[in-house]
Amino acid sequence: MLGRPALLCALVSVTGALVLFFLGARKERRDLTEAAARALAVTAAFTSLAVAALVSALFAHDFSLAYVVNYSSRSLAGPYTISALWGGMEGSLLFWTLLLTLFSTVAIRGATSTRPVVVSWAGCVLAGISAFFLLLLVVPADPFVTMGEIPADGRGLNPLLQSPGMLIHPPLLYTGFVGFSIPFAWAMGALLSGHADSRWFASTRRWTLFSWSALSIGIVLGGAWAYTELGWGGYWAWDPVENASFMPWLTATAYLHSVVIQEKRQMLKVWNVALILATYVLAVFGTFLTRSGILSSIHTFTEGDTGIWFLPFLAAMLLAGLAAIALRLDHLKSDNRLDALVSRESAFLANNVLFVAAAFTVLWGTVYPIIAEVVTGVRLSVGPAFFNAVFAPLGLAIVALTGIGPLMSWRRMSKGALGRLIRPPMIAGTTVTAGLAIGGVRSAGALLAFGLCAFTAVAIGGEFVRGSRVYRSRQRLGWGPALARTLLRNRRRYGGYVVHLGVVLIVIGFAGSAFKVERNAFLKPGESMNVGAYSLTYEGMRQARTSEKQINEATVVVRRGGSRIGVMHPQSNFHFAQRQPQSEVAIRTTPVDDLYVVVTQFDADGSAAIRSFVNPLTWWIWAGAAVMALGMGVLLSGGRGEVAPASARSPVRETVVVAG
Amino acid sequence: MKREALLVAVACWAVLAVAPAAAVAAPQDVANDIAGRITSPFCPGVTLHDCPSQAAADLRNRISAWAEAGWGRTRIMARLESEYGQEIRAVPPASGTGLIAWALPVVVLATGAGVAFVLLRHWSARTPQTRLGDGPERNSLSLSPSERRRLDDEITAFKGR
């Protein structure tokens, strides 16, 4: 087998890269740094070889490997054999390491605009992180452990993971988590080298955006997977592992906003470095949570001693990061001061306070059970009710700021100018709120959410209209071409607004959950139940058997207002290899609402327990995610030179004051 | 800004006016809500509402039956705690050590907002009033409302390029 020797070679080469990067940084010798970069590339090649060895063992059903036995079987469908690579702890760590070594190699090779000494120190950090993960793969989480006795077949992959979403969701999450190590390493490199100017974040802007985009889409796909596979009618349960992916997303989102202030005004330098440090530490913390078994979660890998290896690594990252910040504090002083309280800088700062408070809330709710157990001796859980209650006000405030922020000017803005710009969105928000209230909506939270969404959508729409108007008047273009030109000529700004519009749509979807209806009934064939405006008639159960599972498929006729509108087929199956029951949800989705039907139990006489939900506006969550992805595409396609650095900009532009 | 403030006041009034009129929850809604507020004794780390096991479905049915029989939330929760212990709660109590769970995020937010406000005041107070348009000469510019509006539009258009 090539797998384990390849991992050992990777560990040796990454150790060499670490030493060479360190010497290159200390002696400021470019030849040593270039040699280190080559050693890092060799590490990536050996890690790729190890991944190829494991994947080929999975496809070849090589049951001499314990990992292949535990996470695959002969009957596992072809595409899901790839999912088995990240379906278990050892494979997922191997995949993580592959991404890390590949990203590190590409980032180091592409760092032409960064000072060589910063690259050397950044390479040192990346090689150190890679060495840690390779050590994990060689010692406690070896994916190439062999079986004493070779079984005829494997245990198969968890049926929940045999879903198209699982082919994309984990790789995207890992891409996001691992991708954040690049800006983290660059920030540390800048601090350690004593060049903590603004170049480090400029050269990793695309990496940050790329990682954030991958994590964002990964989180949404995880929600979609939970919605269609888990059968409890929801998409987000505030599970510790879900939270683990959400926390770095929140701090990274704060960073993406606050770094603009550093870019434009040379301010918040300490804060930005702290945010990227927090993002990376939280990403590793999530990995620790997933693999330590310290918290109960439906997502965790098997409990073992691998998780404990992450604690010293986490502590080292955190302490080294804080020490580096403290060491270079004098380099991180702001070059400018704020001109006025009413300015876009203030809005961005408020945005950061909210995002960081939100990240803290999620972290606190996640670790509270451990703290409570230590203090009181009683193991308490913190469930969705807590998170929804604490997080919703913060989320709504963020939505409001998403609308207000783009209306504000950099440096200062008069109240009169702000008042004029804010009037249309405010009228829209108020009209929507009042209209819905008059129309019979009785949820204060939902009214506020819909009102704020209308406010923000109109505020962002206004930005597009104002931008397009310039092209219409100066280049005599129609609205469509003018809008396209607005978007494409300043992709960072308008791509960001498209992402914000996606967020608004997602919040509309979340707000719809205030009107969720759930009904459960045990029905005999021919009996009916009502859920919301729908009537469901259970017509009977069809049974079938395959080599993998026993299929029990219900036929449910759906009526609305007395008219038959469709037939749904939820299943309650039993997987033989895993000895595990598994519900296959039936969902009838429209932009207005989703009808979601699950069979939770059935009797020999053909009776079935039906769990049904009407989830209003859930469709908008997925639509919003698609719009966000479009915005991310626009952002990522933006050229590096779209926004000139602050020093290169016209002084006239910098001192423009909106009269009022 | 006065008109905008009036609009906000109207919106707040509309929200507050309708909020108390929320309909009384149906027994099954009460049961579903409680199931979302307790940890499943059968699936570690998952609420009873989300737990897929048969035993969880049975317990959800029992809670539904209690709600149908007219039991209030407090009585149902007390019954569940007497059967499964305090650990069944998936929401920290708003008293004792549980209060810290609720209060700390608020404290962090308030502290963050306070620090940000103080920093903003400090930074803006230290800004020298020497740049073009920042000083007293700016106030001496007498622009008519239409000129002011045009200037705003031009600046916005300029930013939009």
What do these coordinates show?
The complex is a heterodimer of chains A (660) and B (161). By secondary structure, chain A is an alpha+beta fold. Chain A contains 21 helices and ten strands. Chain A has helices spanning 3-27, 30-59, 66-71, 78-87, 89-109, 116-138, 164-179, 181-193, 199-203, 205-229, 240-265, 269-292, 306-327, 344-376, 384-404, 415-438, 444-475, 479-489, 491-512, 619-637, 651-654, and strands at residues 517-523, 528-531, 534-545, 549-560, 563-568, 571-575, 580-584, 586-589, 593-602, 608-616. In chain A, strands 2, 3, 4, 5, 6 and 7 form a six-stranded antiparallel sheet that branches. A four-stranded antiparallel sheet of chain A has the order 1-10-9-8, with no helix packed on it. In chain A, strand 3 (534-545) and strand 4 (549-560) form a beta hairpin. Chain A is globular, with a radius of gyration of 27 Å. With 161 residues, chain B is mostly helical. Chain B is built from seven helices and no strands. In chain B, helix 2 packs across helix 3. Chains A and B meet through helix 14, helix 15, helix 16, helix 17 and strand 1 of A and helix 1, helix 2, helix 3, helix 5 and helix 7 of B.
